[in-house]
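Support case: user asked for a sample of complex input and structure output to validate their parser. Sending the pair below.
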Amino acid sequence: AQSVTQLGSHVSVSEGALVLLRCNYSSSVPPYLFWYVQYPNQGLQLLLKYTTGATLVKGINGFEAEFKKSETSFHLTKPSAHMSDAAEYFCAVSANTGGFKTIFGAGTRLFVKA
Amino acid sequence: EPEVTQTPSHQVTQMGQEVILRCVPISNHLYFYWYRQILGQKVEFLVSFYNNEISEKSEIFDDQFSVERPDGSNFTLKIRSTKLEDSAMYFCASSELEDNQPQHFGDGTRLSIL
């Protein structure tokens, strides 16, 4: 079975500061890992994904994440926050366990202060 | 870029009534999914569908729920006798291949049960 834990339901940063959203996962088989962003009253937009290969993955809008198997982590970072980054961020995992359902974390709401 | 489209964007229904939520997945995608997000909670997997049959379902997906691909383009979720606790945002998703491909999400249908 898979699970995802996002540390911190709310994160607040100043504009221009580093963004760090934490995600730890559990999976009995090699996982595929994703970060999605959700703006108010909108759907889920894929930011980036890790499947195989390079453990540092780059996504849209300047975000990146690093897969660390030893730490079972997949933290999302962005060097410099922008006001438009304010949204809800979901870490997610899927794996071949007879199906490829995606399991989502509880989400982290990012606030960006001017 | 191709999108998953969902209709309606908001559905208001009396408790006990049947409701059908509609989705048009991306045209060359083969795997289809429904997820639910109760207000303020995380996104939860409901069901996956491939080759005209359910491939996996969660414990949430009880006998009140059914899915169908009535033609070559639509994918529907039916709730037979709605309950207050069915009020949520319902997301449809599709993916081209099952393994390691991110699921593309629609903008969701907000279902409100009165």
